[in-house]
Queue: 3 jobs
Job 1
Amino acid sequence: MNKKLIRIEGLVVLALGTYLYFSNGYSWAIFLLLLMLPDVFMIGYAVSKKTGAYLYNFAHTFVTPLLLLLAGIALSVDFLTMIGFIWMVHIGMDRMMGYGLKYVTDFKDTHIQRL
């Protein structure tokens, strides 16, 4: 049941974030170019499982993109708002597909399932 809820939550974040991004008139090209950028944080796994998990989790929690969204809206900086929406959509997409936050034991061990 919890896995389904997390996946549904991911779908909602994906859909809402995408809708809000494009309803503000932001660029398709930038959206597609940056959508997978948070996965660059997997590079930490080249150092160790622990470093990889910490970096990956930093990039795949909602805190940072929410802060970017808030800063972008409060300061009227479209670039920050765009990045915040794209980052949120990426996390929502990952959750919808069953990719979760990583445990330090292995890349395939996530808070949703074992991949």
Job 2
Amino acid sequence: MHDPDVPAARRRIAYVLPVYNEEENIAVFHAALVEATTQRPDLDFEFVYVDDGSRDASLERLVELRAEDPRVTVVQFSRNFGHQLAVTAGLDLFADGGADAVVVMDTDLQDPPRVSLEMIQRWEEGVEVVYAQRRTRKDTPFKRATAWGFYWALDRLASIQIPRNVGDFRLMDAKVVAEVSRYREHDRFLRGIVAHVGFRQEALLFDRDERFAGETGYPLKKMLSFAASGILGFSTTPLKMISRLGYAISLLSVLLAVYVLFVRLFRPDESVPGWAFLGVGMFMLSGIQLVMMGVIGSYLGRVYVESQDRPLYTLAMIARDQSAAGTGPRRHRDMGALDPGAES
């Protein structure tokens, strides 16, 4: 039973903020984030910026932020490992505690910091995962069309229910973060992992803003790779479709054989050489076989990568106040070797 004379411990919220070539956005974003979080003076905050091998001056801007705001933690990758692994590295810092809840959001101001306060309120009401669902989005028609196609395919192929129009902008309770950090696959699709973990999850509708500056970190090639990670990581339906397509082609070939036999026996005058038909059919079946081999190869490639059991990422530096770190950073083997003088 709580002693009324002993003040209750202040709850701690951590923000995990992946950064890749965002030098123009960092200062503006952090100012907006600080302005939003000052509305909750009853909470303690930590802002974890993960530099994903940026090629511009993003790291320098982050170091400047840390000099001005001791609540800022800077994590630097040794090279570019990708957005999903940058988020993973931030979550790993809190896998063994140190925060009561973690908010994941991008630093391009498309995810409004004020929305995170609504997430915190939902969390205080008992929701364990609050994910931001886009009511509107200011993207190009091509981006909206491809996003719709991706979620349409994911709805029909994935073995679990993954919400539509949802990115990685979300709040997770500490126990959810601990469970998510146990998932160590390399081709990561975090929104699928969070959905797979379970717990009480609710959507928070919001209007997504335009990018403040810079270019998107997800060009078409990365978007396709990310979509493949989502589908292959949470569904074996493509493999089942290969078998179904094989059965369908086999049935069609039997029907054609019956037709050819019928013409030979009962209408020999109508029988003509079918070299063109055979040539087209041969090329069509060869193409289908190559597609099938490609699907199987994609799954086999994922197995090969996982069997190598390499670390997910390597850290070059962690700049973090131990007084603000709670239990301190988690020494998971996937975090790589750290310079003993990297933490402060």
Job 3
Amino acid sequence: MQVWRIAKARFASDLSGQGAALFGGRWNHIEQRALYFGLTPAICALETFIHATQVPRFPLKIIRVSLPDDPELYWQPSIDQLPEGWDAKPADSPSMDFGSRWLQQRQQLGLIVPSSVMTYESNIMINPDHPAVSQIKILSVADFAYDSRMFSPRN
């Protein structure tokens, strides 16, 4: 399985999950390591774009990663299995509690969840404490820039 991530250049090859532990994320509480990827490059761009208020002034990279192909390493809960409020904006405790419990269980490498930005797309949270994390391979790291029109005022 191939997944993507957009990150500041200096963190492009960091697969420690420490960034999510420092700040928390939609599916993890602070102090819990996790890695977030999109199943498509487009959802990565959309997910990071919603947090930007202007064209980023720092270099960004798009990272393509290979995950092990064993389906047993992933869990994709149905929408009905997700807690009410999982898609709150900003992220709130229902999704953080859910993902944090999943991380603590260490049963799978990846949790595949819908994007709160566009539920037709999916993201994957990787547990860096799962033994299969050693099978993750960075396939490519390339420069990434948003089209400046995305930040232009609209009439």
